[in-house]
TrEMBL record:
GO BP term (any one): tricarboxylic acid cycle
This protein's UniProt keywords: NAD, Oxidoreductase, Tricarboxylic acid cycle
Every Lactate/malate dehydrogenase C-terminal domain range: 156-324
A Pfam entry, by short name: Ldh_1_N
Taxonomic lineage of the native organism: Eukaryota, Viridiplantae, Streptophyta, Embryophyta, Tracheophyta
Binding site for substrate: R92, R98, N131, R162
Family statement drawn from the similarity comment of this UniProt entry: Belongs to the LDH/MDH superfamily. MDH type 2 family.
Secreted recorded as keyword: no
Protein's name according to its UniProt entry: Malate dehydrogenase
Domain of life: Eukaryota
EC primary class: oxidoreductase
Organism, scientific name: Quillaja saponaria
Length: 331
């Protein structure tokens, strides 16, 4: 039998946490033959609720689950973790300034970066889900200099999956037959969902989405805004933000990163920019990536037209502004 993998989930008493931990314990994230130990972290006001989550995990008698640590102590939570899914953060409340929200998250991510750096496994892989996801990941990277930058990522897979879903609904095809959409940039409403390289598997082979969706206008307007604003649409409908789809996307992100992407398929991940596609190095920016042997690499050589270029730069600009704001909160 395989050695158990230790997975940290922060914000584990929250909405996404509640959907995510059973998925991990069932093997959705790391595979059906991979035992796991869960470390759940939340803050004092949520300590009782967190205990309840631990009780339910025990009650579910998951065969792969080899242990649960539920704690409000970041050091205990980070001890020997192999995978860290950072869902805990400070949400924007009505009437709050952007700078105040940023400042709260900067201090959370600075502290948790140090705890991870000192106590996690040296090859720990980190996924930041909490918003502002890209910038929280950047702060984590800055304050955990001994964790390789390749190991620090943020979640844009939910946006990627939403784009696949929209194409599948539009064309009445199975979602598994749609692939290679791209989310560029920030996990925010400036993200650019790009279908220029996306294809659908049909009985006549791979066809470009641009060829199958004859309506270019839909692809260039409504499709993009629907994906960009899907989070707000879910809040409007459910009165709560996306949880099950976010949890599922977090599992997809880690699974593909650890176990690899299928041949010929890429996915979107927020990763440290190396300057690919003219994106300023040192931002955490969502790119198309393939994964092999536990490492992602940015898909190279895709043709970028002027429509795309403009949108990719706009979302990069927003990330530069967020980075400046985050740094101003450090002083
Ligand atoms: P909830 O408010 O339900 O849960 C957040 C949990 O984090 C709470 O239990 C809270 O006590 C805890 N927490 C706060 N500060 C903490 C700290 N310092 N250490 C540990 N835990 C802490 O929010 P939920 O709906 O679960 O969303 C969690 C985060 O995901 C939010 O920041 C949200 O904006 C973000 N999202 C990101 C998405 C993405 O695709 N990247 C999509 C879904 C989601 O909106």
């Amino acid at each position: 039998e395989k050695e158990p993998v230790t997975v940290l989930v922060t914000g584990a008493a929250g909405q996404i946490g509640y959907a995510l931990v059973p998925m991990i314990a069932r093997g959705v994230m790391l595979g059906p033959d991979q035992p796991v130990i869960l470390h759940l972290l939340d803050i004092e006001p949520a300590a009782e609720a967190l205990k309840g989550v631990k009780m339910e995990l025990i009650d579910a008698a998951f065969p792969l689950l080899r242990g649960v640590v539920a704690t409000t102590d970041a050091v205990e939570a980070c001890k020997d973790v192999n995978i860290a899914v950072m869902v805990g953060g400070f949400p924007r409340k009505e009437g709050m300034e952007r700078k105040d929200v940023m400042s709260r998250n900067v201090s959370i991510y600075k502290a948790q970066a140090s705890a991870l750096e000192q106590h996690a496994a040296s090859d720990c892989k980190v996924l930041v889900v909490a918003n502002p996801a890209n910038t929280n990941a950047l702060i984590l990277k800055e304050f955990a200099p001994s964790i390789p930058e390749k190991n620090i990522t943020c979640l844009t897979r939910l946006d990627h999956n939403r784009a696949l879903g929209q194409i599948s609904e539009k064309l009445f095809v199975h979602v598994v037959d749609v692939k290679n959409v791209i989310i560029w940039g920030n996990h925010s409403s400036t993200q650019y969902p790009d279908v220029n390289h996306a294809t659908v598997t049909t009985c006549d082979g791979q066809k470009p989405v641009r060829e199958l969706v004859a309506d270019d206008n839909w692809l260039n307007t409504e499709f993009i805004t629907t994906v960009q604003q899907r989070g707000a649409a879910i809040i409007k409908a459910r009165k709560f933000s996306s949880a099950l789809s976010a949890a599922s996307a977090a599992c997809d992100h880690i699974r593909d990163w650890v176990l690899g992407t299928p041949k010929g398929t890429w996915v979107s991940m927020g990763v440290y920019s190396d300057g690919s596609y003219g994106i300023q190095p040192g931002l955490i920016y969502s790119f198309p990536v393939t994964c092999e042997k536990g490492e992602w690499s940015i898909v190279q050589g895709l043709k970028i037209d002027t429509f795309s270029r403009e949108k990719m730069d706009k979302t990069a600009q927003e990330l530069i502004e967020e980075k400046t704001l985050a740094y101003s909160c450090l002083n």
